[in-house]
Amino acid sequence: MRVMAQMSMVMNLDKCIGCHTCSVTCKQAWTNRTGTEYVWFNNVETRPGQGYPRTYEDQEKWEGGWTLTKRGRLRLKAGGRIKNLATIFSSPKLPSIQDYYEPWTYDYETLTNAPLQEHSPVARPISLITGKDMNITWSANWDDDLGGSELLAADPILAKVSDQVKLAYEQTFMFYLPRICEHCLNPSCAASCPSGAIYKRAEDGIVLVDQDKCRGWRKCVTGCPYKKVYFNHKTGKAEKCTFCFPRIEVGLPTVCAETCVGRLRYIGLVLYDADQVLEAATVTDPKDLLESQRGVFLDPFDPTVIREAEKAGIPRDWVDAAQRSPIWALISTFKVALPLHPEYRTMPMVWYIPPLSPVVDVVQETGEDAEEAGNLFAAIDTLRIPVEYLAELFTAGDTEPVTGVLKKLAAMRSYMRDINMGRPGDPSIPEAVGMTTGEMDAMFRLLAIAKYDERYVIPPAHAEQAHDLEELATECSLNYDGGPGMGGSGPFGEGSGAGTPLAVENFRALKDRQTSDTTATGITGPATRVNMLNWDGRGTPPGLFPGREGPPEEPRNETTSDRQGKA
Amino acid sequence: MTATLDIVLWVVVPYVCLAIFITGHAWRYRYDKFGWTTRSSQLYESKLLRWGSPLFHFGILAVFAGHVMGLGIPKSWTDAVGLSESVYHAMAVSVGLLAGLATVVGMSLLIYRRRTNSAVFGATTRMDKAMYLLLGVVIFFGLWNTIGSGVLNLYDHYDYREGVSVWFRGIFTFQLHPALMAQAPFPFQVHGMAAMLLFALWPFTRLVHVFSAPLFYLWRPYVVYRAKSERFGARAPRRGWEKSEKTLR
After folding, report:
1. Across the interface, do A470 and B214 touch by the CB < 8 Å criterion?
2. Tens-place pLDDT, residues B154-204
3. Residue A345: left (phi > 0), alpha (psi -120 to 50), or beta?
């Protein structure tokens, strides 16, 4: 047993309203640069739909991920090592910019510079690739909310379902699928990289591209079946979702999770046995991949696992975090989370709770009680179409696990309704899906009311000592007591001077400073800092203005009692 | 007596160029690893690239192999193995022609693509243009030498293996023969000089990707794991700050 820790995410699709806030904040944080205009580390797709880049899920076309050879061994679908190198001069299966979309801006200047004319001037779209005028024909979410239903025919998942099903399905429902990099246990992008620039961090399993080692062979773009490695066309390097590792290292959730208005994302650790990954990814029947991947995860409460984790150098607070992990609970305890496209055999680590809401909507339309357990169970059994579609996404086409999850969600809804109405909970409902009332309560708490600290259980990285040591040697030489640095600020005030090292301590200090009610120091002088955020506009805190000539003035802080006295 | 000009052209310039080639690469690798890339433009266009790029690259690899044979292996060695002059000549010219043509056709396609596709042209730097020009001159005269001297016999049976090759090897063994180059036919001189200038330009262009040929990929494990080198340190400790207990376990 070789225990490793993996930082992973679960998304509850029932809660996704398709607002794209995650995509926008992610883009602002990571890809608002030249060369990455078309890149969305996080994107939200409407299903059914073609996805981004278009039809990326059709692996017969794009050849991403792994496949089994006739001898039952795992091989990159795009070809083995020799073929990979032989096709290095022109990658045969690389999506073009048109498969993503041609990024553009608008000629805003015309709006202000245009001469007086009869019609208002128009800001025309300009391609950010060629710099010329262009027609906008596609973008990362062009088929949002089923916009342009003729496009649906190109959905590779829908193509797997028969025509009759398709028609019925379009009348049934749609849902949103937010996607980031899967940070796979068996990453095919890393396996495709000729330079060895893509690596998996041994501490937390985050998959990153070493920008100094990447040579722009662009094989990773083909290798990733989720098409979540992007080619920066300006720098000629591959870039991908970083799981916001600088935030994760100090115990903060990713930007997409932090800003999610639906609070549908969960982040936590999973312990797994690295020795079993390859075997689990090699099972013959793709439908067994869900179970085999669950089998790789290790129970963080098992004393053997705890002992092995300690031997592997995993800190004790990480094991604690793995025990409190919402991911472990959703994947292995409640078994309501499912992986996206396990059939790619990359062992993805961003899992999804399939949406139940559409089924509820259908029952509601019939006029029946949409929260009654029997009605919902029957609907899940009869509504084969959405279940089959979901199964193609999450279980390689096996409908049974999807039905199981949906029934658990339906049971929870029905069971909790009784409790919310002041009636005693009906224990037969959890029993019908193989759960106890206690488990049902716990699952409800995690899915419905879990607070920030329960949704995001992220132990900070253990680099604190390193930074202490490092700062001894790299501290600003002006940063002595009374020196120009004045213990933290550079010669030109707060924030000037050398960059602040990224460390847990600095993060905490900054947080204290931002939330404290008092200024950090009582000393007056040019270097005294005033927290403008805490200043309510009344009075003059010391240090706000430079001292006058002559004897120092008393601070004239008008207090509430003074004002009341005057009134 | 060798003329000063010959010494400058065929001793000083080559050494200066090769010195720039070596120190330039060291400098670039030290300070610009981030810029060390193929700068592929396949994202913009791949229909022409699909043909042009493999033709050019495989062609130039064969050309390189040919130069290793022609410049690197002394005539006395092939004579010793019993490889006759005519057989060697026929082999060199036929393979050279094939490789040269592939290279030229591939490069023409790539340049046409670069000029006509506005996205690709927009991503072309001034350094790229200078490099294309020099590379074009080198390749053109190289192919012309194969055709003009090897096939059409325009240069009075000039045997580069007793001229250019000896001079070239001499640069590395410090046995200088500038006179051999001075006597070589003009197209050979242009080819040699342009190649030297290209070597000087090389470290500052995208050509550096040649030295990143990822052959190691064939042996390395598929998935690369990386841990912080020290359990308690993001970087290796500075000299004098090492921990006294190297390992706790």
Report:
1. no
2. 888 888 989 999 999 999 999 999 999 999 999 999 999 999 999 999 999
3. left
Chain B CB contacts of A187 below 8 Å: 223
Q: Which of these, A546, A510, A509, lies nearest to A528 by C-alpha position?
A: A546
Nearest by CB to residue B118, choosing from A132, A202, A217, is A132
Contact B44 A90 (CB under 8 A): no
Q: What is the pLDDT of residues B98-139, one digit of tens each?
A: 999 999 999 999 999 999 999 999 999 999 999 999 999 999
Residue A519 Ramachandran class (φ > 0 left, ψ -120 to 50 alpha, else beta): beta
A410 pLDDT higher than 50: yes
Residue A391, helix vs strand vs coil:
helix
Q: Is A268 helix (H, G, I), strand (E, B) or coil?
A: strand
Using the Cβ of B39 and the Cβ atoms of chain A, whether some distance falls under 8 Å is answered with: yes
Number of helical (H) and strand (E) elements in chain A, helices listed first: 25, 14
Give chain A's end-to-end CA distance (angstroms, integer). 76
Instruction: Find all residues with CB under 8 Å of B189, minimum gap 6, and list them.
Output: B181
Closest B-chain CA to A35: B123
Could A466 and B230 be called an inter-chain contact, meaning their C-beta atoms sit closer than 8 Å? yes
Cross-chain residue pair A191–B215, CB shorter than 8 Å: no
What is the rounded CA–CA span in Å between residue B221 and residue B243?
32
Q: Any CB–CB contact under 8 A between B54 and chain A?
A: yes
**Chain B residues with beta carbon closer than 8 angstroms to that of A193:** 217, 224
A256 vs A21: CA distance, rounded Å: 8
- Burial class of residue B26, CB neighbours in 10 A (0-12, 13-18, 19+): exposed
How many CB atoms lie under 10 A from the CB of residue A202?
15
B231 vs A contacts (CB less than 8 Å): 313, 462
